[in-house]
Specification:
Elements lengths: L4 E6 L5 E2 L4 E7 L6 E9 L2 E9 L13 E3 L2 E4 L8 E4 L9 E4 L2 E4 H5 L9 E6 L4
Antiparallel strand pairs: 1-2, 1-11, 3-4, 3-9, 4-5, 5-7, 6-7, 8-11, 9-10
């Protein structure tokens, strides 16, 4: 049986494997300009959310009640079932979303192979044996 890895691609295009099974997705809220980070793990059931954190709070983006403030971040663990995939818009109105995998961080669009000027959303999912 092949090891599970994360796969990424432009919505409507081919997916390709990332060099690991866990990643941290980071982005900036488009209105409040507050940094968010979420950890994701490839599992047989789908993408499993890990720890998450928010650099602040604001309109429509309050941290959940169980979040704890530490070192400038509200940290929590989302209570989500495994997700089949994430569809990430990566808005042109914010700083580029980033993805960190095996200690390497790059803009989400670069991991997905999205050409400059392309505005298609990006898919993140679980794959096995895709290269």
């Amino acid at each position: 049986m092949s090891a599970l890895t994360l796969c990424i691609g432009v919505l409507g295009g081919a997916l390709h494997a990332l060099p690991g099974s866990t990643a941290t997705l980071a982005w900036q809220h488009s209105v409040e300009k507050v940094q968010w980070e979420e950890q994701w793990q490839a599992t047989p059931a789908g993408l499993q959310a890990g720890d998450a954190r928010i650099r602040g709070s604001g309109a429509g983006m309050e941290p959940p009640p169980e979040a704890r403030f530490h070192d400038g971040w509200y940290a929590y663990h989302p209570d989500l079932p495994p997700q089949k995939e994430l569809i990430i818009p990566d808005s042109a109105f914010t700083a580029p979303a980033t993805l960190c995998v095996t200690g390497q961080c790059a803009p989400l669009a670069a991991w997905a192979g999205r050409p400059a000027g392309d505005t298609h959303p990006i898919r993140l999912g679980v794959c096995s044996g895709v290269r």
